[in-house]
Design brief:
Elements: H1 5-45, H2 50-78, H3 80-104, H4 107-134, H5 141-157, H6 160-171, H7 177-193
Helix pairs in contact: 1-2, 1-4, 1-5, 1-6, 1-7, 2-3, 2-4, 3-4, 3-7
Length: 205
């Protein structure tokens, strides 16, 4: 009887799968913050008018999305590990300033605060997909990437708006969700630090 791809991959590739799961936390938490939570944060928590909140979110998404391929290209030139570490450490440093800007109110401050958060998110979106694939040989790539990434998405992405809202209620602070971003980055940082550089290396068969 042929062994299932899942069992084969788990047996031979559990270390890179564990690394991918650890690296994914910062990706999941930060991306769902800017894509799923920020608009509710501006409208409900900060009480911004829709005619201010929606355009600021739109501008931030357009600018942030445009930066994604640029960061992917930079990782081709300077290495995946280096660019991802810049994004992770940058998120630790700028998570609270980003929320402080959004909490200030007004279109300019709200947009600027989102862009501060979008810079590391654009790095992650541009670099992580290739990095994930390069962790595994061809025969194990689909299962090796798919299983831990799905677990990370289920555990960290979908829960980000809920946990961010709960943190605000627990602390009575509108900038408290920044601590959740910092936590995600701190958890992922050791996994990124130990990452083997794979940019421009031949894919394993």
């Amino acid at each position: 009887m042929t062994e299932s791809p899942f069992v084969t991959t788990m047996r031979g590739q559990w270390r890179p799968m564990a690394r991918l799961l650890g690296m994914s936390m910062v990706f999941s938490v930060s991306s769902y913050t800017v894509l799923a939570f920020v608009v509710s944060y501006l409208l409900v928590v900060r009480g911004q008018a829709p005619e201010v909140a929606y355009p600021s979110v739109l501008v931030a998404i357009l600018v942030g999305s445009a930066a994604i391929p640029a960061f992917g290209a930079l990782s081709d030139r300077f290495g995946r590990r280096r660019i991802l570490l810049i994004g992770c450490i940058g998120l630790i440093i700028f998570a609270f300033p980003g929320y402080l800007l959004m909490a200030t109110g007004g279109f300019v401050a709200s947009t600027a605060g989102q862009l501060v958060l979008w810079i590391p998110v654009a790095i992650f979106c541009g670099v992580f997909p290739a990095t994930f694939c390069e962790l595994f040989p061809t025969g194990a790539r689909s299962t090796g990437v798919g299983v831990p990434y799905a677990l990370s998405t289920a555990a960290f992405s979908g829960t980000t708006p809920l946990l961010s809202t709960m943190v605000i209620e627990w602390t009575n602070s509108d900038i408290a969700p920044a601590a959740y971003l910092v936590l995600g980055a701190v958890v992922s940082l050791p996994f990124l630090w130990g990452l083997r550089e794979t940019a421009n290396a031949a894919l394993r068969q």
